[in-house]
């Protein structure tokens, strides 16, 4: 165990240490061993300079380093990285953000985002509520500085295929809810789905998202077959967004070749969760996220901004939950009303507050993927560009066949985010299009 001996000979009790393994399975094994031994280690997205993006690391106190070393040696676990985690000093972008601050107390909190580990809900609530317009500008600049120093300026573009809209849940805000009798239900054939995926592959897309309503478990075998076919034909990375499934399903999907799983929690406020999810349970939802990690998935979650009765402190609680979870991807969208739902007549979520949630999530959750969502593009004509200017670093374009696109009715007036729209939004935001995309710039968006 030369790596262990090399890096653990001298330990500073004031340092945090990173533990990174070559596979998610080994990371989970180490975490379980530490947990059983009473050694506190938290999941975080792997910081820049210590490994590839969208992977998971364990961070722990230097006080525990000798015990962690002994534990890993006993169980013959060889990490890729085991090093003190020292952040880079603030660069010019951070200096610009700090110079924009108007209120000293708010500036102190922004500065603490780089180093502080323990956050209270009240402090995160303060971050979400800048005292002045100038402080709001500082918040945006700080989020952009954090995004730039951890992820750079290239925007990752992924492609989604909404292959079915059958759903067994009855969420009050979602147009796919089972009680919506006005919705035409559909399920694409494997041939239709594969054609859409081939189109995305020909655009240069490297990660595809298979998205549907929450189907019953009779669909499991067909999804497993679809994953295997995609892997064998195209070799793409696969993200699943299928709602809550059984632990056995999660393992089956992972073994078939799926890489990531997106399960948005929407809100971590127990009372609010009960009000908007009549047939769901918050603790069960959280358990599913743990199961997904145990199955070996890179983990995605996220929430809605603007649910009826939602407070800013509730949003702060959501961000702290995502941070503790160490989510690899966090999808944040404004609430948008959907026809034929109990919330159809409510006002949409506030754009300004949604963007502040983006910024604070970037500051506190670090090197995680934050997409500028289709919901933002649906709320405001320049919403996707604005998301990229408030800390987001990815876009998900939708390539569902035209004949069924309107039936994937999550909310009203859903924007069509195709390759042209996504790339133009990236350019409008002053960001860089990824080199893997095959896109010819057009003079006008439409």
From TrEMBL:
Its cofactor is [4Fe-4S] cluster; [2Fe-2S] cluster. The keyword 4Fe-4S applies. One of its GO terms (biological process) is water-soluble vitamin biosynthetic process. Keywords: 4Fe-4S, Iron, Iron-sulfur, Metal-binding, S-adenosyl-L-methionine. It holds the Pfam family Se_S_carrier. GO terms for molecular function: 4 iron, 4 sulfur cluster binding; metal ion binding; transferase activity. It comes from the Bacteria. Residues 149-373 form the Radical SAM core domain. InterPro entries: Aldolase_TIM, BATS_dom, Elp3/MiaA/NifB-like_rSAM, FeFe-hyd_HydE_rSAM, HydE/PylB-like, rSAM, rSAM_sf, Se/S_carrier-like. Signal peptide: none annotated. The keyword S-adenosyl-L-methionine applies. This is [FeFe] hydrogenase H-cluster radical SAM maturase HydE. The lineage of its organism: Bacteria, Bacillati, Bacillota, Clostridia, Eubacteriales.
């Amino acid at each position: 165990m030369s790596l262990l001996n090399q890096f653990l000979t001298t330990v500073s009790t004031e340092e945090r240490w990173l533990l990174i393994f070559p596979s998610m399975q080994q990371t989970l094994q180490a975490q379980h061993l530490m947990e059983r031994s009473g050694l506190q280690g938290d999941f975080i997205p792997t910081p820049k300079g210590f490994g590839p993006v969208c992977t998971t690391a364990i961070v722990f106190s230097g006080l525990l380093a000798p015990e962690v070393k002994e534990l890993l040696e006993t169980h013959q676990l060889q990490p890729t990285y085991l090093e003190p985690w020292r952040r880079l000093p603030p660069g010019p972008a951070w200096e610009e953000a700090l110079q924009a601050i108007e209120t000293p107390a708010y500036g102190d909190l922004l500065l603490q985002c780089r180093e502080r580990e323990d956050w209270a809900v009240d402090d995160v609530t303060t971050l979400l509520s800048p005292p002045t317009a100038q402080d709001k500008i500082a918040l945006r600049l700080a989020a952009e500085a954090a995004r730039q120093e951890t992820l750079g300026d290239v925007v990752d573009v992924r492609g989604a295929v909404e292959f079915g809209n059958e759903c067994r849940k009855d969420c009050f805000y979602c147009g796919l809810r089972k009680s919506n009798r006005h919705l035409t239900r559909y399920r694409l054939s494997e041939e239709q789905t594969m054609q859409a995926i081939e189109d995305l592959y020909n655009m240069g897309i490297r990660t595809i998202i298979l998205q549907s309503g929450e189907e019953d478990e009779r669909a499991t075998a067909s999804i497993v077959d679809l994953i295997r076919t995609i892997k064998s034909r195209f070799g793409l990375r696969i993200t699943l967004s299928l709602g809550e499934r059984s632990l056995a399903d999660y393992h089956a999907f992972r073994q078939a070749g799926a890489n990531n799983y997106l399960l948005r929690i929407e809100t971590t406020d127990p009372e609010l969760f009960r009000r908007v999810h009549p047939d769901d349970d918050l603790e069960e939802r959280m358990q599913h996220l743990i199961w997904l990690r145990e199955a070996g998935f890179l983990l995605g979650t996220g929430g809605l901004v603007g649910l009826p009765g939602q407070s800013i402190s509730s949003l702060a609680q959501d961000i702290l939950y995502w941070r503790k979870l160490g989510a690899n991807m966090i999808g944040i969208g404004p609430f948008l009303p959907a026809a034929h739902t109990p919330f159809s007549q409510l006002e949409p979520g506030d754009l300004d507050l949604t963007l502040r949630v983006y910024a604070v999530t970037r500051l506190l959750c670090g090197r995680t993927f934050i997409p500028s969502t289709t919901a933002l593009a649906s709320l405001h004509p320049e919403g996707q560009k604005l998301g990229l200017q408030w800390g987001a670093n990815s876009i998900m374009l939708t390539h569902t066949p035209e004949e069924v696109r309107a039936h994937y009715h999550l909310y009203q007036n859903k924007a069509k985010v195709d390759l042209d729209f996504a790339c133009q939004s990236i350019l409008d935001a002053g960001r860089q299009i990824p080199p893997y995309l095959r896109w010819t710039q057009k003079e006008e968006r439409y």
